[in-house]
Specification:
The protein contains eight helices and no strands. It has one domain (2-211): Vanadium-containing Chloroperoxidase, domain 1 (Up-down Bundle), CATH 1.20.144. α3 (50-58) crosses α7 (153-176) and α5 runs antiparallel to α6 (130-149). By secondary structure, it is mainly alpha-helical. It starts with a helix and ends in a 5-residue tail after the last helix. The chain has helices at residues 2-28, 34-46, 50-58, 64-82, 85-109, 130-149, 153-176, 182-211. Helices cover 77% and strands 0% of the residues. Keywords: Membrane, Transmembrane, Transmembrane helix. The chain crosses the membrane at residues 7-25, 61-82, 89-109, 129-146, 158-177, 183-203.
Length: 216
């Protein structure tokens, strides 16, 4: 059963990589996806509205100004909760890796942003959204590690739903304030989820090795 599950996870992972590469190839050839053509009008309607103002605040939860101290604090919290450095290392290094992975993809694709907003960390290339991708890993790992220490299914579900909602709001804020195309955000979610899945599996593998050290 475990072998079949591993094959299924591997298949999902490979399909995800292939779809992402095809998406990147299309953008590198300067083809504008239909989704972006259809959804540009909504953004212009939301400009200078209360919705825009709300999402302008939400987007700060994915900025480096907030996430860097947040990661440091939560790494300390995880070390204290688990009495083990592994969760803290996976969380902090996973978030850091995702940042540089995002930068590398942006340099490869070189898609221009719909607009530049330096105050919202919106400069440089557009695809994929760093806020969506990094938030998926950062807050996804927070939800994972906190849930493992909670007792009771309802508490775990509440934590997971809260952080899932936060991830969606942060990612969509980049589209609402017009510093990313919708496909940038969707790709950020997708690639971020693949990274999150990989880091969780890595943690589980390393935790199992710690619990069952090799003999002799």
């Amino acid at each position: 059963m475990k072998i079949r599950t591993s094959y299924l996870y591997g298949l999902i992972f490979m399909v995800g990589i292939v779809l992402t590469l095809l998406w990147m190839y299309k953008l590198m050839n300067q083809t504008v996806p239909y989704v972006d053509q259809w959804t540009r009008d909504l953004v212009s309607r939301l400009d200078n509205t209360e919705v825009y103002t709300m999402f302008r605040w939400i987007t700060e939860l994915g900025s480096s100004t907030f996430t860097i101290p947040f990661v440091i604090v939560m790494a300390i919290v995880f070390w204290w909760l688990y009495r083990n450095m592994l969760p803290a290392l996976i969380f902090s290094l996973g978030t850091l890796f995702t940042h540089y992975f995002n930068v590398a993809i942006k340099q490869l694709v070189e898609r221009e942003r719909p607009s530049i907003l330096i105050a919202a960390n919106a400069e440089g290339h557009s695809f994929p959204s760093g806020h969506a991708m990094i938030s998926m890993v950062c807050y996804g790992l927070v939800a994972f590690f906190l849930s493992k220490r909670l007792k009771g299914a309802k508490k775990k579900q509440l934590v997971q739903v809260f952080f899932a909602g936060l991830i969606v709001l942060i990612g969509m804020s980049r589209y609402i304030i017009n510093v990313h195309y919708l496909t940038d955000v969707l790709a950020g979610f997708f690639i971020g989820f693949l990274c999150l899945f990989g880091f969780i599996r890595l943690y589980q593998w390393l935790a199992d090795k710690q619990a069952s050290p090799s003999r002799g």
